[in-house]
Each structure stands twice: as C-alpha cells, then as structure tokens.
C-alpha cells in the first residue's frame, strides 16, 4: 500500500483549540463560512483549509506574524471551532465581520513569505465537502508592503506574486505517472457506428501521452501497452506498485443521445454527482464481469487504502488535478460535454491511494466526434492538453 510524501495530511491528528469569535452579523450574503482547519505538510509546510458554501472570492495580506484572509460577500459563522493540527504555524484564527466581508485573522508562530499562486487552490465540492480555499505556506521572510493588487482582488497591504508551477523538470526527482488505457482484449468498450472501438482509441492516445510525458521529464508507465484485458483492480494495483504520483485513466464515452459530444472528467466518490455519472460508473465497473471468474475483489491492502481515500488529502489532490485538466482542455478549445467541469462517481479503477482522474475523451456515439477521435491531429491535441495539465499540477502539495 502506497503512502506518499503528502500523506501527512491524512495521518495528522487534529486538536481542537478555542478561539474568540464575534457574533454573526445579521445581513443577507450569498456565501457563508462552513469550516476552518489546518494540517501539517511535508517540508515544514502548514495547510489552511477554508470551507465555504459557494466559490470564495478572496484577497490576502500579511501583517507581522499574521495571515489575513478577506472573503468578500461572506457571512461569519460563530458556531465554528477551527481544527488546528499540532505542529502547524497557526496558533489561532479569529473572525470579524466588516459589512459584507468576512475577515479571518490567522495568528502565526512565525512570519511567512507571500503565498505563491502554485500554493493556492480553490477546490470544487466533493462528497461531504463544499468549496475549499486551500493555502499552503511555510515560515519565511515577510513580504514587502505594497499597495498594488493581484488577480484575487485589491489587497489592502500586500500583493501576491506569481510562482512557476512545479514540473518534473525542476523537481528533485521525476514524478511518476501511470496512464491507464481503458478496456482491452475481450472488452472493446464503446463501439461507434463506424466501427471504432474505444479500446483502440484510448490505447493510441495513451502511447502518445506516455511518449510526450517522458519527453517532458516525467517517468511514465502504461497499465497496458497492447490489446490486453485487465481487471479494474489490477489497473489500480499497478499504480500502487509503481508508487505513482498521479493516475490517469483514459476512456471514450457513449450516450443514447446521438448529438451528445465532448469530453468529461471524473474523480472518485462513493456517491455519484448526478444520474449520468452513476450510470457511467456502473457501465465502466461492469467491465470486470466479462471475466469468467466474475468481479475481482480488492486485495486486503487495497481495501485498507480505500479508507484513506475518504480522508481529504487524496480526494483533494484528485480534485485539484481534475479541475486543472478541465481548464487545460477548454483552453485548447476541445469541446466539453454540457455540465460541470468535474463530476464524481464510484469508479472501481480509481480506488487506490494514488490521486487520479478518469478522462472521457469524447463520444464515439456521436458520428462527427467518432471521426475526430480517430484522427492523429485530434489525438495530439488531446495529448498536449493532458501534458499541460500534468505540468501545471502541483505535485509538492
């Protein structure tokens, strides 16, 4: 069973500390605070997670030995007691309401440097969690006072600088990516009206993706490099065995509505985000039933790992990658299936301790998209978008 360098978040016990809270101001606000918590990350980093009912709009400032997070159009919540991890830089968190804005004063043991963009995430709702603003920081030289603004809004005291995203080239070691070409062998997957088989399309894309990621300095493995049938648990086990930092499962979709087209991206959740996601997961999971021996049960160590997935760490890392991947696809002008950027469902192939996502590259049930998915040009376009998403993913969180 794999425990990577970011599992400290899952294993850290939270101790509850009392803080002084001001009463909630009675006014109408579109957003509200749901929870506050901290964790301890590798390399002496502290993680602050601010959970809100809807997507937060925020800015940051850095008074001496403090981090101030201002959330616009947000109501305070006096019923919240922050969960503060032992060993983090945070000693307490105070709330105050200023009109429509909520001010969170995070008191620190030591001053911190400006938090770079690569250390800031806004995660979509997932399972039992709402929107989460995630900030990672370490002790350092306090930023110089400025009056300019960043993309996060007007900062009253300091501005946040931009940092280059972490990539395999600049890292101390090569990050390991496991690429899973879905289906294979006696399981063809979806078959388009023109006879195009899902297993062939995704294997072609997987091989191209491996080559491009290797060129960009990553260490990559394929779950299958030929027309071979694999159980879903076997695919997840390969990611575990390789001690992967990221798992990407490639698929092509089908829909009763022949005009439906576009990519969609999924992460693991025990509860599907919508009925379509539920049906897709059921269809993908049914691939195991093709084997005469029936549905393979997970080995004991994998079953144990599933409990870890219910922790926030792996789920949040998967969400972060999936969200970035959707942005990369849209930036490349690849058609998106109508709906949210990231959906969630209980995909068996994603059940491991490795952060990952399932990418539906398009619809073979759509005649025009079937033809498109067969072309080398479009496959290269898909590969380039995925490579960009991997390079922009923050492996060091």
Q: Order of strands in the sheet with the most strands?
A: 13-12-14-17-15-16
CATH topology of the largest domain: Aminopeptidase
Number of β-strand runs:
17
The level 1 CATH classification of the largest domain is: Alpha Beta
User: How many structural domains does the protein architecture include?
Assistant: 2
- The CATH architecture category of the largest domain equals 3-Layer(aba) Sandwich
What Rg, in angstroms, do the CA atoms define? Answer: 22 Å
- Uncertain parts: 1-29, 146-172, 288-300, 302-310
**Could you state the CATH homologous superfamily of the largest domain?**
Zn-dependent exopeptidases
Number of helices: 8
Structural class: alpha/beta
Model description:
With 397 residues, the protein is α/β, with parallel strands linked by helices. The protein folds into two domains: 8-137, Sandwich (Immunoglobulin-like), CATH 2.60.40; 176-392, Zn-dependent exopeptidases (Aminopeptidase, 3-Layer(aba) Sandwich), CATH 3.40.630.40. Helices cover 25% and strands 25% of the residues. The protein is built from eight helices and 17 strands. The chain has helices at residues 8-11, 198-215, 232-241, 275-285, 300-309, 312-331, 367-374, 376-392; strands at 14-16, 31-41, 45-52, 58-61, 66-71, 74-75, 83-85, 90-98, 101-108, 120-123, 131-137, 176-181, 219-222, 246-253, 264-268, 342-345, 356-363. The strands form four sheets. The chain has a six-stranded mixed beta sheet, with helices on both faces. A five-stranded mixed beta sheet has the order 6-2-3-11-10, with helices on one face. The chain starts with 7 loop residues before the first helix and ends in a 5-residue tail after the last helix. Residues 1-29, 146-172, 288-300 and 302-310 have low confidence and may be disordered.
């Amino acid at each position: 069973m794999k425990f990577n360098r970011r599992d400290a978040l899952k294993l850290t016990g939270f101790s509850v500390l009392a803080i002084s809270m001001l009463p909630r101001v009675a006014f109408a606000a579109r957003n509200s605070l749901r929870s506050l918590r901290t964790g301890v990350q590798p390399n002496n980093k502290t993680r602050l997670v601010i959970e809100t009912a809807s997507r937060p709009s925020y800015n940051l400032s850095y008074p001496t030995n403090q981090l101030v997070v201002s959330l616009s159009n947000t109501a305070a919540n006096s019923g919240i007691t922050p969960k503060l991890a032992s060993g983090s830089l945070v000693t307490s968190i105070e709330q105050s309401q200023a009109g429509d804005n909520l001010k969170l004063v995070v008191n620190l043991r030591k001053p911190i440097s400006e938090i770079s963009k690569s250390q800031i995430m806004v995660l979509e709702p997932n399972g039992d969690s709402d929107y989460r603003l995630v900030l990672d920081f370490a002790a350092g030289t306090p930023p110089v006072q400025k009056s300019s603004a960043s993309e996060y809004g007007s900062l009253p005291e300091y501005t946040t600088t931009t940092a280059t995203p972490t990539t395999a080239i600049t890292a101390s070691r090569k990050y390991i990516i496991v690429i899973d070409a879905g289906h294979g062998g006696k399981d063809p997957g979806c078959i388009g009206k023109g006879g195009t088989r899902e297993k062939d399309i995704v294997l072609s894309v997987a091989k191209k993706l491996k080559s491009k990621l290797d060129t960009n300095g990553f260490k990559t493995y394929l779950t299958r490099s030929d027309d071979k049938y694999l159980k879903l648990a076997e695919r997840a086990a390969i990611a575990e065995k390789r001690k992967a930092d990221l798992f990407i499962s490639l698929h092509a979709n089908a829909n009763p509505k022949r005009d439906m087209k576009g990519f969609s991206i999924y992460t693991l959740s025990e509860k599907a985000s919508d009925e379509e996601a539920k049906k897709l997961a059921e269809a993908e999971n049914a691939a195991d039933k093709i084997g005469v021996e029936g549905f393979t049960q997970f080995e004991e160590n994998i079953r144990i790992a599933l409990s870890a997935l219910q922790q926030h760490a792996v789920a949040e890392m998967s969400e972060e990658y999936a969200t970035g991947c959707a942005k990369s696809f849209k930036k490349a002008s690849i058609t998106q299936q109508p709906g949210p950027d990231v959906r969630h469902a209980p995909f068996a192939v994603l059940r491991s301790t490795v952060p990952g996502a399932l990418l539906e590259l398009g619809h073979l049930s759509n005649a025009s998209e079937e033809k498109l998915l067969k072309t080398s040009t479009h496959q290269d376009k898909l590969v380039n978008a995925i490579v960009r998403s991997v390079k922009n993913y923050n492996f060091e969180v």
